[in-house]
Amino acid sequence: MPAYKAPLRDMKFLLNEVFDYPKHYASLASGENATPDIVDAILTECGKFCEEVVGPLNQIGDEEGCKFEDGEVTTPKGFKEAYNQFVMGGWQGLSAPEEFGGQGLPASMGLLKQEMMGTANWSFSMYPGLSLGAMNTIYLHGNDEQKQTYLVPLTEGRWGGTMCLTEPQCGTDLGQVKTKAEPQADGSYKITGTKIFISSGEHDLTENIVHIVLARLPDAPKGTRGISLFIVPKFLPDGNGGMGERNGVSCGSLEKKMGIKASATCVMNFDDATGFLIGPENQGLECMFTFMNTARIGTSIQGVGAAELSYQGALEYAKDRRSMRALSGKKEPEQIADSLIHHADVRRMLLTQKAIAEGGRAMMYYAARLADHMVEGHEQGDTAKAEAYDDKLGFLTPILKGFLTEMGFEAANHGAQVFGGHGYIREHGMEQIIRDTKIAVLYEGTTGIQALDLLGRKVLLMTQGGAVREFTLKVANFARKQLTNKRMRPFALELLKLTAQWNVLTLRLMLTARKDRDAISAAAYDFLMYSGYVTMAYMWARQAAVATSNLASGEGGESTEFYNAKLATAEFYYERLLPRAQSHATSMLSPTSNLMQLDVEHMAFHG
Ligand SMILES: Cc1cc2nc3c(=O)[nH]c(=O)nc-3n(C[C@H](O)[C@H](O)[C@H](O)COP(=O)(O)OP(=O)(O)OC[C@H]3O[C@@H](n4cnc5c(N)ncnc54)[C@H](O)[C@@H]3O)c2cc1C
């Protein structure tokens, strides 16, 4: 397993030079304490914790996995100690409101922390990640008493959180949820049902676990309009800030799975468990979307993290391992053979990983600024502001989640490929990154579901193409300003072509969908990937523009080599990866009949 090194130079380049976070933080009420010095100190400290404590547990966690005995789950060796350090460092509350014991820093700071922690050890980061989703849900939809009871211990990290949606018969289609909630005379509810695949459902890291559960009230309307949301704690609160009796919720078993083995994935049984309604009756799914959106953005980090970690391992190996001579002549004549890194095909894989890691990180940091404004809107009770930023972020969320996790999985594959046969051997950890990353394209809504959300809901139904028009206008305005610069012109021209094409594709799909009901589902995946490639192209152009300008002026916080590397990677992205967008464009406009014409019974002819 590659030893994780926090990519602090790249992170600071994006924060300080590309997206001007110092100015952004200065404009936020929560940014008062996020001065450049403090941000720098936090990043350094977090990087150290991830490199020295969390990262070294990644491979051990995979080998040992979680253990289940008599309803109790034990995390792998070292996890509890590392989690205690995490709690003592106050990391869970980094971006949580001060009134509940947090440090009140902007939401984006939490994302930077999540990126480092998740790259170092995704399984470990799942535990605090789920808690964060629970915190956000209670903060936004809980009543005052619920906030007072749950937010402080969750923020401190003493209690953990979960998201209990999935049941044996449904994961995507939550309208099929069967778990029941019976109202009680004291205002609480009795929750009964089985949830599966529940991450962090049971474990030994925290003293209590707060389950956020979707369930159905008696006589609730069928489908998604009849689902409500409940808080179901493992131990009931005693009313004095402590824990009382054990609730009727228990872990039935642990799933045996492909990857993230140190993250406990539990079957959870609710047997007349006491639950408390959160948010309005029958609007549970809307409230749960808060959780899901947090989780989706969190999951997109998994794609970036996989690309980064796998790249770190592959790069080191490619410099060290020797094979044959470079086609353009010996590069290391004193050695028996040249190292892998001198072969163009190996560089294709390495640069693909690098372009995905750094381009994906830029996409995350771009979105994180929007998240800061959205959170500020909520905190200030400025609904219009919160909704406006929620819409902008809502458009990007499926692109981030769908595209970045697919690309991260591709990058992880390249990482093992660079190792040749050794990539398939456990010792090096490259195959673990592939196994750990596959889940990212599945949970929190599969890529297919993200694609439907993007094209069907956000682009066509909710905005009739307006979301694409708004975003592409921003990109095109940026591109136009770059046209006068010789070095930037090729990037700018390509971006202008793509932004126009993105709108044309949207319009054509809108027209097709009026006549052909399968058209949206048929085109959605290609539309999502196309959108991802173009968004990443915008991010690479933004990085290239800063590099170009700093090289010309001799300013900026980085070295000439760093800026040249940015430009070289941007060129690689535009010339070798971005052309894939055109195959997605062709594919999305092809007739639906090529998918639907084959009769179900003619899909295979066995025996
Ligand atoms: C390790 C792990 C951790 C998890 N953690 C949690 C958790 O903490 N909490 C929780 O509640 N759940 C969790 N899940 C569940 C996860 O979110 C679901 O498995 C996932 O959302 C997919 O749902 P499903 O398995 O029911 O697949 P299905 O919904 O059965 O989908 C199967 C396939 O059909 C496609 N599909 C389905 N419907 C449509 C449609 N209408 N149009 C086009 N294509 C469609 C999907 O894209 C997919 O390819 C976890 C799962 C795993 C494996």
UniProtKB/TrEMBL annotation:
- Protein keywords: FAD, Flavoprotein, Oxidoreductase
Pfam families referenced in this protein's UniProt entry, alphabetically:
Acyl-CoA_dh_1 (PF00441), Acyl-CoA_dh_C (PF12806), Acyl-CoA_dh_M (PF02770), Acyl-CoA_dh_N (PF02771)
What is this enzyme's EC?
1.3.99.41
Give all residue intervals belonging to the Acyl-CoA dehydrogenase/oxidase N-terminal domain.
42-157
Glycoprotein is among the record's keywords: no
Query: Which reaction(s) does its UniProt entry say it catalyses?
Result: 3-(methylsulfanyl)propanoyl-CoA + oxidized [electron-transfer flavoprotein] + H(+) = 3-(methylsulfanyl)acryloyl-CoA + reduced [electron-transfer flavoprotein]
Does DNA repair appear among the keywords?
no
Domain Acyl-CoA dehydrogenase/oxidase C-terminal, chain residue ranges per copy: 282-453
One Gene Ontology MF term:
flavin adenine dinucleotide binding
Q: Which PANTHER family match?
A: ACYL-COA DEHYDROGENASE, BROAD-SPECIFICITY LINEAR ACYL-COA DEHYDROGENASE FADE5
Protein name as annotated: 3-methylmercaptopropionyl-CoA dehydrogenase
